[in-house]
Design brief:
The protein is of the alpha+beta class. It has 18 helices and 27 strands. The strands form seven sheets. Strands 1, 2, 3, 4, 5, 6, 7, 8 and 9 form a nine-stranded mixed beta sheet that branches. The protein has a five-stranded mixed beta sheet with strand order 10-11-16-13-14, with helices on both faces. Strands 21-22-23-27 form a four-stranded antiparallel beta sheet. Helix 1 crosses helix 3, helix 2 runs parallel beside helix 5 and helix 12 packs across helix 16. The longest helix is centred in the middle third of the chain and has 21 residues. 35% of the residues are buried.
């Protein structure tokens, strides 16, 4: 076994860089926090190639003393703490003294700074850990740091960087967190010399939220505020009609620092319980101000996780504040009842909305009646492709096996090429006797007893199979919008959509850039003509960014297929005619797995004749 030896400072700094500097966004975060701690009033961020080629941050803060030049890139050198006791009363964003040393070790690093009382500043350069002596220079008051060719001397780390658009999305998220926590700062962000954000200082946080997320969301934000036992809670929470399919819309700040905390996130979910549909998450921008000595921020290298002395106090305060606020405002009158989110059947509706939905349903049913036609091959009735997607020719083709999609073209486990005959409850050509219950379930007589079918789950599986075949064949029918719909997103979200525009085009979605965080929806798949297109795009963004890591192309196809088939399927509450019921059931045996929806839920529950006899005492 080799002997124990002391690691060199260069190796130590590279190890620290692995903990703190994960990607270009980590560099932006650390340097922005330093600028905030330097009491800057204006901070400019300039990035090239997603931060892999250049990150330049300029502030007008207090600057650095010339005698401290070499200490700026020394490990564990900081002006923010003096003793171990200070770790339990941290009032600044940074305090570890690792960031600049770690960054300088894995990049071409330069720093220029001047204090107001000094007539000239100094310049310091470090090339992959190789230090050049500081030298005097002319520069304005404040500090400018340039980081070029990040990970230039660690090529393996550089290979793990994603595309510039993806990395820029992460940078934009870090910039957003700092901008939301410091609305009195003038902040700007440029990428490849193009202005992404130019945010003037403001006393009203709502103005900054409107710049980031648009007027529609800003108009539906609810102000909340409370103070208990020295803890102040304030900020905005969104009306329940504004929600997301992931928790990425939840911003929580502790003494100006963005944090993640499971207990407080649970309090948010409890506060919105009963106001949101299953699988939806609230949008919140909340700030906690607590005494510094009651929280330990030294539990994670990136300082995103903290430890509270008494987290239950904060949990109860957050929960009670939001619940009391919701009781005092009229939420019912503005709830989203358009039926454009997942599991729409769980959404409550007012009598007026139900009446309007009923009229819409009658009109829709009339369209379907006019579109019904007998099949030449089977002599049965079929719904038009927009409702039940397989046409007569497709049904005949699928029955003969000619249009079966190869398993190699889709993720493993999703294809089931042969069905167990024992699982079929009825056969092609038979017309099962069925009835609809609660406009949600279909009760069907089978050879063994009865089956209760979830109409949404079954139709979702049919739509999934249909759309999958179309996507793999590059044959999704789409409709071009006469006037493209503009959709406001964050710059990172817009970049993510544009990066995947080619993939989304396979689904019939046309996405084009319109500048800043705005994109244009130019076309949409015909099968989703009744969907809320704006919400569809927002959900697509959530799907693309949901995992945090860049998913594979197959993963994206799979996730988008699941989401879009769910939106295209009939919902609970839709009354079906006998012909529609028959058409839906007749196509059950033509899909690869009619027993589960794409999300894995069963489409039917079976009650055998023996079970019925036993329940009614007919065993004798």
């Amino acid at each position: 076994m080799s002997r124990i030896q002391q690691l060199t400072p260069a190796v130590v700094n590279k190890i620290a860089a692995g903990e703190v500097i994960e990607r270009p966004a980590s560099v932006v975060k650390e340097m922005l926090e330093n600028s905030v701690d330097a009491l800057a009033t204006r901070i400019e961020v300039e990035v090239a190639a997603g931060g892999s080629e250049l990150i330049r941050i300029t502030d007008d803060g207090e600057g650095i003393h010339p005698d401290d030049a070499l200490l700026t890139i020394s490990s564990h050198a900081t002006s923010k703490i003096r003793s171990a006791e200070d770790l339990f009363s941290v009032h600044t964003m940074g305090f570890r003294g690792e960031a600049l040393a770690s960054i300088a070790e894995v990049s071409q690093f330069s720093l220029r700074s001047r204090q107001a009382e000094n007539p000239r500043g100094f310049e310091l350069e470090v090339n992959g850990g190789q230090l050049s002596e500081p030298k005097p220079c002319g520069c304005p008051v404040g500090t400018t740091i340039e980081v070029r060719n990040l990970f230039c001397n660690t090529p393996v780390r550089r290979k793990f960087l994603k595309t510039p658009a993806t990395e820029m999305g992460h940078i934009t998220e870090q910039f957003t967190r700092i901008a939301l926590a410091n609305s009195r700062l003038h902040l700007s962000l440029r990428h490849n010399r193009k202005v992404i954000y130019d945010l003037p200082a403001t006393e009203k946080m709502i103005d900054r939220l409107e710049l980031f997320y648009g007027a529609e969301l800003a108009e539906k934000l609810i102000w909340v505020e409370s103070e208990q036992e020295g803890v102040r809670l304030w900020g905005y929470v969104a009306h329940p009609s504004q929600n997301k399919s992931t928790a990425k819309g939840q911003y929580l700040f502790l003494n100006g620092r963005w944090i993640q905390d499971r207990s407080l996130n649970h309090a948010l979910r409890e506060a919105y319980r009963g106001l949101l549909m299953v699988g939806r998450y609230p949008i919140t921008f909340l700030f906690l101000e607590v005494p510094a000595e009651s929280v330990d921020v030294n539990v994670h290298p990136t300082k995103s996780e903290v430890r509270f002395r008494d987290s239950q106090i904060l949990y109860r305060q957050l929960l009670s504040t939001l619940r009391k606020k919701f009781l005092s405002v009229d939420l019912d009158g503005r709830l989203n009842v358009e039926g454009d989110g997942p599991r729409e059947e769980a959404q409550a509706a007012t009598p007026e909305v139900r009446a309007e939905a009923q009229r819409d349903l009658v009109a829709w049913a009339g369209e379907q009646v006019a579109a019904w036609k007998p099949s030449e091959s089977t002599g049965t009735w079929e719904l038009p492709p927009r409702s039940i997607p397989l046409s007569a020719a497709e049904i005949e083709e699928r029955a003969s096996g000619a249009s079966e999609t190869p398993a190699a073209d889709f993720p493993a486990g999703e294809m089931q090429t042969q069905q167990d005959a024992a699982h079929h409850d009825f056969h092609a050509g038979e017309r099962p006797r069925a009835m609809q219950v609660h406009d949600c379930y279909l009760v069907v007589e089978t050879e063994e007893g009865i089956a209760v079918i979830d109409q949404h789950a079954l139709h979702e599986r049919i739509m999934y199979e249909h759309l999958r075949g179309r996507v793999l064949a590059d044959d999704v029918e789409s409709q071009r919008l006469l006037l493209p719909e503009t959709i406001e997103l964050s710059a990172g979200e817009a970049g993510l959509l544009l990066e995947n525009a080619e993939l989304l085009g396979q689904f019939g979605l046309g996405i084009e850039g319109f500048g800043g965080g705005t994109v244009l929806l130019t076309r949409y798949p015909v099968m989703l003509s009744r969907a809320n297109l704006r919400q569809l795009i927002l959900d697509v963004v959530d799907q693309l960014s949901g995992s945090g890591e860049k998913p594979t192309r197959r993963d994206l196809i799979d996730e988008l297929l699941h989401m879009m088939s769910c939106k295209a399927a009939i919902k609970a509450g839709h009354r079906l005619s006998p012909e529609e019921i028959d058409s839906l059931l007749e196509q059950r045996h033509l899909v690869d797995d009619a027993h589960h929806c794409p999300h894995g839920r069963p489409t039917a529950l079976v009650l055998s004749r023996a079970q019925l006899d036993r329940q009614f005492g007919r065993l004798g």
